[in-house]
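Regression test case RT-17, inverse folding.

Input:
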């Protein structure tokens, strides 16, 4: 909430206010970005691509799954257990909203003043 001007509309708010804490955390933003680029992502690939431990990645995936932004699928590839991740429609929208807010923030930094409407 903007305490300085509580009547300010979305266009008047600083872009940082619109960043989603669940999505904006760097590891979770990375997970959502990789998932956006592929239909389905394997846990081991994500772990390696983002330079995480299995436990750390698991914790971030749990946050994203609880928020309804990703779906987790467990199964087997041959005899080896595997975990796959896919972005939900809500996850795609959340990622797009985050990118929009980041663009507004960058515009504000580069051009000063308020950001243009999207």
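Golden output:
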């Amino acid at each position: 909430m903007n305490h300085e001007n509580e009547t300010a509309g979305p266009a008047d708010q600083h872009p940082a206010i619109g960043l989603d804490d669940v999505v904006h955390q760097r590891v979770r933003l990375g997970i959502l970005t990789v998932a956006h680029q592929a239909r389905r992502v394997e846990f081991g690939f994500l772990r390696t691509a983002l330079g995480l431990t299995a436990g750390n990645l698991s914790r971030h995936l749990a946050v994203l799954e609880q928020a309804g932004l990703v779906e987790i699928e467990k199964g087997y590839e041959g005899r080896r257990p595997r975990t796959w991740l896919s972005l939900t429609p809500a996850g795609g929208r959340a990622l797009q909203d985050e990118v929009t807010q980041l663009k507004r923030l960058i515009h504000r930094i580069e051009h000063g003043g308020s950001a243009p409407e999207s």
